[in-house]
């Protein structure tokens, strides 16, 4: 009935509770979840979830916030084109990401200093083009560059084009103008529990604008639990609350939103959900 298109089940606060979460998912009629990779180091764990359970799938990618070394000073592996392509060919890996740009925490740096993020993003786009699997896009305080790079890579001679790879702008919090640009490039828009927050009227206006056949729903677990669970650890069983809010906005039944967004998930990942 409901599909969580973006969650981080390998994060410790969820992995330790996996049996209980799977029971809660079944009770909430959340029949599927896409487990998102954020570092090369965690890919094996993400992929193991997808191959261990018939209603989980996986992606491969490195989150734009993850720099060459983590907070503890441990070196993190920078993904190459070949890294992404090879892992994208494994069973039950259906997308490339989470990737994109994030300028929210610049600190004393400038946008010009974030060229490493832009190059990493281009590597992910080219891998998605090569394997013909969708991109999972993260963009925060960086939407102009995100859209520009997708367009540039789509026009680069010798590449298939970003539009041909397709994908989703996950946990969307941008303006209607950014949504329109993403839709024009052939991308879907995924909405999270933020939609239910009292302060999120602008996002609800965007949700009203986006056509139902281009919407997905997600939890982004363990973050951003929807009302009435805000402040708690999020998990995929809460994704129907996002569907309920969309139903209120669109004048539909919650179950119908679940059916449509699950069908949209199938359409986006068509041919790779095996």
Characterize the main sheet.
8 strands, parallel
**What is the rounded distance between the termini?**
18 Å
- Number of contiguous helices: 11
Strands, total number: 8
Shape: globular
Gyration radius (Cα, Å) is: 17 Å
- How would you spell out the order of helices and strands? EHHEHEHEHEHHEHEHEHH
Q: Fill in the CATH topology.
A: TIM Barrel
Helical percentage: 40-55%
Give the low-confidence spans.
Answer: none
Oligomer: single chain
* CATH architecture heading: Alpha-Beta Barrel
Q: Assess the beta-strand content as a share of residues.
A: 15-25%
Structural class: alpha/beta
**What count of structural domains?**
1
The average pLDDT is 93
Spatial order of the strands forming the largest sheet: 1-2-3-4-5-6-7-8
**Briefly, what CATH class?**
Alpha Beta
CATH superfamily: Metal-dependent hydrolases
Explain the overall architecture.
This protein is an alpha/beta fold. The chain has one domain (2-268): Alpha-Beta Barrel (TIM Barrel), CATH 3.20.20.140. It has eleven helices and eight strands. It has helices spanning 12-15, 18-27, 43-52, 81-88, 115-131, 143-155, 162-165, 176-184, 201-209, 239-250, 254-268; strands at residues 2-7, 30-35, 56-60, 93-102, 135-140, 167-169, 188-191, 215-217. An eight-stranded parallel β-sheet has the order 1-2-3-4-5-6-7-8. The model has no long low-confidence stretch (mean pLDDT 93).
